[in-house]
Amino acid sequence: MSVLQRFLLALALLSSVSYGQEVVRLNDSNFEHDTQASTGSTTGNWLLTFCPTLHCSTYPHLSSLLLELSVEDEILTSGIIPSTLSPENSINTFLRFKIDTSLSHPVLIYLHRGGLYTFRGDFRKDNELREWLLGKFKNWNPKPIPEEHKGGLLFGYKDIPDLLNDFNRIQSQHGLLINCICLGSGLFFMILLAMLIGKITEDGSTGTKKND
Ligand SMILES: *[C@@H]1O[C@H](CO)[C@@H](O)[C@H](O)[C@H]1NC(C)=O
Q1: Residues 118 and 184 in one domain
Q2: Among 140, 157, 174, which residue terminates a domain?
Q3: The ligand 1 atom nearest the CA atom of 27
Q4: Does residue 47 or residue 2 have the better pLDDT?
Q5: Is the same domain home to 39 and 122?
Q6: Do residues 144 and 128 share a domain?
Q7: Residues 60, 90 within the same domain
Q8: Which of 89, 92, 162 to mutate to test the pocket of ligand 1 (most atoms within 8 A of CB)?
Q9: Residue ID of nearest Cα to ligand 1 atom 3
Q10: What secondary structure does DSSP assign to 80-132, as a single string?
């Protein structure tokens, strides 16, 4: 293959990764519905790829590997469903599976017959993840799948992302209005503060006069 051919092939692959078929993206709203993880009998054998830093696309090698796996016969017939999760819309699921969001590397968790297995290998090594998914994971003892958080401390974990989402949505739609309101109320309080300080110093000066 010529250099140009290689380049064109790479380009084609790259564009199919970014624009073509995608690996299932899970988030807090669809996680339980799609995986049925709480029931103990998941809808399939889910490979959950937690990407603490932004999105899994920040790991191009991993993204293309997951995409590759998701269309492979052996993976499909084993009922393995590769998926990705990012903290921006899956923070509850990160908390549920105790994934530290300050990690700089992805965490791969495999759900198989009500058991949880964590991939400890190196996904960059040829076939390591594939072979693990297709059987080697059984060399480890499964852990139970953590329960879904029902309510939480302050708002319930569920509400926090919803609130953030709402705020982001409102801000993106009415950003100018919100900025005006913030600026307006900021000015209002500054004026109020200025008046208050003015009043205090005025009182203070009258006070001194009286004492004179
Ligand atoms: C979660 O994913 C579903 C399906 O892709 C999408 O319809 C929904 O808007 C997503 N929700 C959030 C909060 O990102």
Answers
A1: no
A2: 157
A3: 1
A4: 47
A5: yes
A6: yes
A7: yes
A8: 89
A9: 30
A10: EEEEEE-HHHHHHHHHHTT--TT-SS-EEEEEETTEEEE--S-TTSTTHHHHH
| Final residue in a domain of this structure, among 121, 140, 157 | 157
Q: In what order do the strands lie in the sheet with 143-144?
A: 24-25, 80-85, 45-50, 107-112, 115-118, 143-144
pLDDT digits (tens, 9 = 90+) for 178-198: 676 768 888 888 888 888 888
Give the residue whose CA is nearest to atom 11 of ligand 1.
29
Please tell me the residue having the least CA distance from ligand 1 atom 7. 30
pTM: 0.63
List the domain range (segments joined by +) for residue 200: 159-212
The whole-angstrom separation of Cα 119 and Cα 74 is: 19
Instruction: For 52-65, give the DSSP string.
Output: -SS-GGGSHHHHHH
Q: What is the mean pLDDT of residues 78-90?
A: 93
Among 21, 26, 29, say which to mutate for ligand 1: greatest number of ligand atoms within 8 Å of CB: 29
> Which residues have CB under 6 Å of ligand 1?
25, 27, 29-30, 89, 165
Query: Does one domain contain both 31 and 111?
Result: yes
**77 lies in the same domain as 153:** yes
Q: Domain containing 66 — which CATH number?
A: 3.40.30.10
**Distance in angstroms (rounded) separating the CA atoms of residues 23 and 118:** 19
pLDDT for position 205:
57
Count of structural domains within the chain: 2
In the predicted structure, residue 139 carries a pLDDT above the cut 90:
yes
- 120 and 16 in a single domain? The answer is yes
Pocket test for ligand 1, best of 22, 24, 25, 30 (most atoms within 8 A of CB): 30
Predicted confidence (pLDDT) per residue in 37-69, tens digit: 877 666 789 999 999 887 777 788 898 999 999
